[in-house]
Write a structure and sequence with these properties.
Elements (H helix, E strand, L loop, with lengths): L1 E2 L2 E10 L8 E6 L2 E8 L2 H18 L2 H7 L6 E9 L12 E12 L2 E6 L4 E5 L5 H15 L6 H7 L3 E9 L2 E2 L2 H9 L7 H5 L1 E2 L12 H11 L7 E4 L6 H10 L10 E4 L2 H5 L7 H14 L3 E7 H6 L10 H10 L5 E5 L1 H10 L8 E4 L5 H15 L5 E2 L1 H14 L7 H13 L5 E2 L1 H12 L3 H4 L7 H11 L4 H16 L9 E6 L6 H13 L5 E5 L8 H6 L9 H8 L3 E6 L6 H13 L1 E3 L5 E3 L3 E7 L3 H5 L10 H17 L2 H5 L3 E4 L5 H16 L2 H4 L3 E5 L1 H11 L7 H18 L7 E7 L5 E4 L19 H22 L2 H28 L10 H32 L3 H5 L7 H14 L5 E8 L3 H16 L3 E8 L4 H5 L4 H4 L5 H7 L7 E9 L1 H7 L4 E5 L6 H10 L12 E8 L29 E6 L4 E4 L5 E3 L4 H17 L1
Parallel strand pairs: 12-15, 12-16, 13-14, 14-15, 17-18, 19-24, 19-25, 20-21, 21-24, 26-27, 32-34
Antiparallel strand pairs: 1-10, 2-3, 2-9, 3-4, 5-6, 6-7, 7-8, 11-13, 22-23, 27-28, 29-31, 29-33, 30-31, 32-33, 34-35, 35-36
Helix pairs in contact: 7-8, 10-12, 14-15, 14-16, 15-17, 19-20, 28-30, 28-31, 30-31, 31-34, 32-34, 33-34, 33-36, 34-36, 36-43, 37-43
Length: 1112
């Protein structure tokens, strides 16, 4: 370190005061612009800036500090400029004279000037030429930086006054030699091996069985003095990683000496390396550290190492970076890969495999498989369930038959581990548990897995005939496929079946595929559907398997890898490109497909179904309408089979197991489909929640069938026709119909459907039905109202409440499913689990109803718009009234599920004794009863004993008679002796509406003048004052008890000061009533509205308050 003596100059510029009146100072070091601050107090800012400046200046190089130091003594001077406007305007035409402050000093025989306002410096050879140069450069800077564009900019240049202060500075600065040492000396960081790898400890490694020969071979190679690296190659699940773990566990017996194994992976080596060259530095440090130690690196999958590290900036990967070190035997590495990945590696980097000695890991023999499963089961049975030998044999059989794509013993061992974890302690795991768990994972029913359970083919045929009507030949083919699968006669290495459904559109081909997925795998979602018309381009085949360089999985391979047990539906497959057919040849022939990343998708548990409309257009030209002739089936079979043979290549045609022609639908089938569609409509939530029944007469049914069937499109138009002629009118009708009721659909004389329904229930909040005199503008406003109702339902569907309830229902279903699986395994029973959760049922019903109502409102709006555009005004005038009542009820129901209200409330109303108190309490009592609550009444006298004020004060309420008649008697008690009334309310709906009524309620009538009062008395001296218009005040306190009424023993109400008026000043005013002007003022919102305090008004107010809380 060396001491430096210098002088720093502090420039202080005083600006105008701030808006608050505080002074503003801008302080900076001369020639050090990074040291500046804006402050209110000069002394404090100067010292703070000096402290920061010393730290910053010490960090600068000596040459940089020397270049910036001012050797002379600066002085402040003023320069005068005449600035012309940059662009002449009405506001500024002539040049403007301004003055700028500058700092000048002599240094090295030259004059230097600085203008802080413009942030420029000027160097002149002598003092005489400095003023002219300073003006010239100042004017250039003003024009260059746009200061001469407005008067405001010119005024900002002349802000404040300058003050110069010189400060001596003698710091200890770093010398040039010390700085060079610091920059060129690197501190030794943590060891790269310890930082990037994890040491593999023998006691923590899993034991591998029946791999003694391969293990000994691996140990011999690793013990060679030239340190060769090894590539373990074998199918996924064969035990490559387990072999390395067994090597670590038995390293002492295998005489590996002092060699230690460390584990890492490509993702770990590159984790957090966001800068260019960071992961290369890590790998270099790892290599340098591993050279100095007797270690072996287990780096995981070689294919991953070949891809990790590549980017748009370069193609170098971790594998290519390490290859020279592996070839020179600088480090010893163990990696692994599958044969499919090896093929991709050799294609992309042929020289990479030369750095390794390849050791193939083969699948064990059948005898070794049994020994591995037995040894693993013995180890698992030490802490939990134990496997029987029959269960182990069944595990091996099921995996060989249905999971041939997964190498042994990985898949069976993982299955055993999951089954073992789900079992109870000290239980015996038998074949029943194996079948149950395998069925749960694959979706296949037990009667297809267990050869001991027979399959009723007649019942199976009936089930499919109910799902797909009118296609008995196709059903027979499907049943025969299922029978082959049950008997275990399907060909290994091929899909379970490859079928071609061909025939006219709308005849049930897709529905048959869904039914087969539901029968085989217990869910129609197990069907993978691809519209092959989207793959008609030459590059389409690549989309199915994956991209060339992006590493993404293909559409088809990813879906099958995620769910190997499925029905693959290739819709309209003849529209695909020829390259897609080449992929299908591999799928149908070998039941496997490998993507660009070397990942294999197995199709051996798939049923491949292709659909086609080949020949449908020519076939449709032959006839129109229904055909009752029995020759239709034979003609269809011959026609469509011939069309397939003309289109497909022979190798593709021969790989299809069965060609299933679909015949046109008969009249009886279409009628049956119409009945089924109507039954499905009647089961929707809008009907079920209202307890409505739909009755369609036979003429109306035949009308829908005739209108909904088209030989060109099959039964597809049927759903659309039912929606247009039946569902749309019903959506407007069911809004105001309270069940149970029957809606009868008939065919009138004009050939139109008419719907007879009961009259809407009285009191419904409905908009008036459009009359015959409505104009088009009125009808458009009606459509606008329908759109608002639809938007309200849609907003409710995406609200926080709905999303929360959906997430809660999903979580409850997952827990219920886990409990069902656990109970099944624990009981070892074949019975179906019958457990359910009532709360989950309510959630699902509410969500289903919400979606159904939203669909109904959408259909209603579309129907109104279509009818208006078609000028069908008469139809619009016959529509049922629009209402928001259903939406409001659904919002309140959803809110009650989202934030469950209390089950009971204690409503304590205190006030001045008299009839007003009774009348006020009676309105709330009747409103609670109207809301479906059970209400008990308790009265408290003015002279309540002192012991009741501190002990069981509600005993009077508990002792109240329970019957309605005896409760009614209490309302006729002497009002002048009662100071408090308690209402015990049982019911969640009433509690949700009444829970926010706490506070003070006032009744203040507008006073009349004395002359008006005198005049009233003269007119009728016998007329007494109206008690409803008297002033009164009361307080409502609400408490939520946890017990039912009969269980009250220790519940206490604080009933002090029950007598007399409540303290208005200290409480919160809930509501104020004016019985003369019929005005009510809400205390919380300070809003006014008209109304009289009675039951109907209170119910309407409570409903509005609950809705506002729910929507908030």
């Amino acid at each position: 370190m060396s001491e430096v003596s210098a002088t720093l100059h502090l420039v202080t510029r005083t600006l105008e005061d701030s808006a608050e009146g505080a002074s503003q100072l801008f302080i900076e070091f001369l020639l050090f612009p990074e040291l500046s601050t804006l402050a209110h107090r000069e002394r404090r800012a100067r010292f703070a800036l000096i402290d920061v400046g010393e730290e910053l200046l010490k960090a600068l190089p000596l040459d940089e500090i020397s270049r910036r130091l001012v050797l002379g003594q600066p002085e402040i001077t003023t320069i005068e400029l005449s600035v012309a406007p940059g662009k002449r305007t009405e506001a500024w035409r002539e040049p403007m004279d301004i003055q700028l402050d500058a700092l000048i000093w002599e240094q090295g025989g030259q004059m230097i000037a600085v203008i802080p306002a413009l942030s420029i410096s000027v160097i002149a050879p002598n003092r005489g030429t400095l003023p002219e140069m300073l003006k010239e450069h100042a004017l250039s800077a003003i024009k260059r930086d746009g200061w001469n564009t407005s008067h405001l900019q010119m005024a900002l240049l002349q802000r404040g006054t300058f003050k110069l202060q010189s400060l001596p500075w003698t710091p200890l600065l770093e010398s040039t030699r010390d700085r060079w040492k610091r920059l060129n000396t690197t501190e030794k960081g943590p060891d790269a091996v310890e930082q990037l790898c994890t040491r593999m400890e023998g006691p923590f490694m899993q034991q591998a069985y029946e791999m003694q020969g391969t293990l000994a071979h691996l140990a011999r190679i690793l013990s060679l003095p030239d340190k060769p690296s090894i590539l373990l190659m074998g199918p996924g699940g064969v035990g490559k990683t387990a072999l390395v773990q067994e090597l670590v566990r038995r390293s002492g017996d295998l005489k590996l000496g002092e060699k230690t194994l460390y584990r890492s992976s490509g993702s770990r080596l590159i984790a957090g390396a966001c800068g260019f060259g960071m992961w290369q530095k890590r790998c270099r440090d790892l290599v340098e550290s591993a050279k100095q130690k007797p270690i072996i690196l287990f780096l995981g999958n070689l294919f991953e190492l070949m891809n990790v590290g590549q980017s748009s900036a370069g193609s170098e990967s971790i594998a290519s970076f390490l290859r020279p070190h592996l070839v020179r035997r600088d480090i010893q590495v163990i990696v692994e890969c599958t044969p499919e990945q090896m093929a991709v590696i050799e294609k992309n980097d042929p020289r990479l495999s030369e750095a390794f000695r390849i050791l193939k890991v083969e699948e064990p023999s059948r005898e070794a498989e049994s020994a591995i499963l037995l040894s693993s089961s013995i180890k698992m049975g030490r802490d939990r369930g134990r496997f029987t030998r029959d269960a182990l044999q069944r595990i091996a059989t099921l995996h060989h038959r249905f999971m041939g794509y997964a190498a042994f013993p990985g898949a069976p061992l993982r299955f055993m581990q999951r089954l073992h974890e789900a079992a109870e302690k000290d239980t015996l795991i038998e074949e029943a548990e194996v079948y149950a768990a395998f069925s749960a994972e694959t979706g296949m029913p037990r009667h297809l897995l267990d050869p001991q359970q027979p399959l009723d083919l007649a019942e199976t045929r009936t089930w499919f005939q109910r799902r797909v009507q009118g296609q008995d030949a196709a059903v027979d083919v499907i049943v025969s496929v299922i029978a082959q699968l049950k008997a275990g006669l399907t060909r290994p290495g091929r899909p379970l079946a490859s079928l071609l459904f061909i025939g006219p559109t709308g005849t049930g081909k897709t529905e048959m595929a869904k039914a087969l997925a539901e029968f085989l795998f217990q869910s129609p979602e197990r069907m993978i559907r691809l519209d092959m018309s989207e793959y008609g381009q030459p590059w389409s085949a690549q989309r199915l398997v994956s991209g060339r360089h992006d590493g993404k999985e293909g559409i088809l391979t990813a879906a099958v890898r995620e769910q190997p047990f499925n029905v693959l539906l290739l819709d309209e497959f003849e529209k695909a490109d020829a390259s897609v057919f080449d992929l299908l040849l591999q799928v149908l022939g070998e039941a496997r497909l490998t993507d660009a990343a070397g990942r294999t998708a197995d199709f051996s548990n798939c049923v491949v179904i292709m659909t086609s409309n080949l020949g449908a257009q020519e076939y449709a030209l032959g006839r129109m309408g229904f055909d009752a002739n029995g020759s239709a089936l034979r003609d269809a079979v011959e026609h469509f089979t011939s069309a397939v043979q003309k289109t497909l290549r022979p190798e593709m045609f021969n790989r299809i197991d069965r060609i299933v022609p679909y015949q046109p639908l008969s009249e009886e089938v279409v009628l049956s489909l119409t009945r089924r569609e109507i039954d499905a409509v009647s089961l929707r939530s809008g009907f079920a929640s209202r307890k409505l029944r739909l009755q369609v007469t036979e003429p109306a049914l035949r009308h829908l069938a005739a209108k909904g069937y088209d030989p060109r499109y099959g039964a597809r138009p049927l759903k659309r026709r039912v929606a247009e002629e039946l569902l749309v009118p019903l959506s407007s009708l069911v809004q105001n119909v309270e069940g149970p009721a029957t809606l009868r659909v008939e065919l009138d004389v004009d050939g139109r459907l008419s719907i007879e329904s009961p009259q809407p229930a009285p009191g419904t909040n409905a908009a008036p039905v459009a009359s015959a005199s409505l104009t088009r503008a009125d009808l458009q406003s009606r459509i606008f109202l329908a759109a608002n109702i639809r938007r309200a339902y849609q907003r409710l569907l995406i609200s926080t409440m709905t999303n929360g309830l959906a997430a809660k229902a999903k979580l409850m279903e997952q827990r219920l499913r886990a409990q069902r699986m656990k109970d099944r395994v624990a009981r070892r029973s074949k019975d179906t689990w019958q457990g359910h959760d009532p709360e989950l049922d309510r959630l699902k019903t509410c969500l289903s109803r919400m979606q159904g109502e939203a669909n109904i409102q959408l259909a209603r709006e579309e129907a109104l718009i279509l009818a208006l555009n078609r000028e069908e005004l008469e139809i619009l005038r016959q529509r049922e009234p629009l209402t928001m009542t259903g939406w409001e009820d659904l919002v309140l129901e959803t809110f009650a599920l989202w934030q469950p209200p209390p089950k009971r409330l204690v409503f304590v109303i205190r006030g001045q004794p008299g009839k007003a108190l009774f009348r006020f309490a009676r309105v709330y009592h009747d409103a609670a009863v109207e809301l479906g609550a059970s209400v008990r009444l308790g009265l408290f006298h003015k002279k309540t004993p002192a012991r009741l004020l501190t002990e069981d004060a509600l005993r009077v309420l508990a002792d109240a008679p329970p019957s309605t008649r005896e409760q009614e008697v209490l309302w006729h008690t002497d009002a002048e002796s009662i100071s408090a009334i308690a209402l015990w309310i049982e019911g969640t709906n009433a509690a949700m509406h009444l829970k926010n009524e706490t506070g003070i309620h006032l009744s203040r009538a507008k006073r009349k003048s004395k002359d008006e009062e005198t005049s009233d008395k003269k007119m009728d001296s016998s007329v007494q004052s109206d008690p409803q218009k008297d002033d009164w005040a009361c307080r409502i306190d609400i408490q939520v008890p946890e017990n039912h009424l009969p269980e009250l023993s220790k519940f206490t109400l604080l009933l002090q000061d029950l007598a007399g008026l409540p303290d208005v000043e200290s409480g919160v005013i809930c509501r104020q009533y004016d019985p003369v002007r019929l005005i009510v003022r809400e205390g919380s919102a300070n809003t006014r509205k008209e109304g009289r305090f009675e039951k109907s008004w209170l119910l309407q107010t409570l409903r509005a308050t609950a809705l506002a809380e729910a929507l908030a």
